[in-house]
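In this section we turn from sequence analysis to structure. A common task in structural bioinformatics is to predict how a protein folds when a small molecule is present, because the ligand can shape the pocket around it. The inputs are simple: the amino acid sequence and a SMILES string for the ligand, here zinc ion. Study the lines below before reading on.
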Amino acid sequence: MAYSEEVLRRARARLEASRQEKQETYEAHLQQAYARYPRLQEIDRELRGTVAQVVAAAFRKGEDPTAAITAVKERNLALQREREWILDASELDPDFLDNTPICETCGGTGYVGANMCECLQELCRSEQKKEISSLIGTGRERFSAFRLDYYSDRYDPNIGASPRQLMERGLQICKAYAFGFTQQSPSLLFSGSTGLGKTFLSGCIARTVADRGFSVVYDTVIQMLSDYESDKFGESTEESRRNLARYTSCDLLIIDDLGTEMVTQFSVSALYNVLNTRLIKGLPTIVSTNLDSEGIRGRYTPQIASRLLGSFELIPFFGEDIRLRGK
Ligand SMILES: [Zn+2]
């Protein structure tokens, strides 16, 4: 199977990240073990003194190195035995100082000769599945391009701050969210009027999280519901069927423009199904909407409203339409 360069890059990055993580864990464990059993550190230090050094010393003194080499070898074996004794007698787990490579087959390089190792293939397959289905936008969604100066710095007594201060906070939250994203991250609700940067910021999050190797699906609520409708009426395409599985299983689902769709019994139940399934699985979702909490309660069933208002962290958006200011 040929993978795109991008998929391969992400798969390799994940392999490298696991390798690094394992190495870091090992080093941290080693330091803990040293702190607890200082003799271990002395032994390791002595073991690192190489045979070559001893041999060189023997030569400098004009002696035959053979005896010195034998002595060093014996000394090393004795040290290794002592090391094992200390560890066996210690309270440390047997694999606490495990330093084997993450993959025995390829040593963690991802390749055996010219062939891709099964471990990297597996990562490529998983990355392939994660390709973002329909990340919309202009491709300019970078946190660094977010214009805080579009938001007024005038104090607004209604919110107890200026819109700019509020958005500065929102921007920080979104950045921290994207760069620290895990499958255990909370769900977010972006609420505020049109043109306040909700779509832009969710696009930033989508790109950052996807770049970090997570599966992200970004869709408008209308597109998502239309995939469910096609499925219901037997008009599904291969793409819409693939999307259906992704909505409930991707690491991060971003639903844009909630509130712009037509509310029908079907749309409400499909929406509830997506939100609830992801909450049960513990997978995070970001929903952006023009509705405030009153609007959400008025438009949706109590079940949907309680999910959105109870289980999502609210990020409020305030200010004037920045798209007008940008022109
Ligand atoms: Zn491997």
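The domain at 132-325 is CATH 3.40.50.300 (Rossmann fold). As an exercise, try to locate the residues that line the zinc ion site and compare them with your own expectations.
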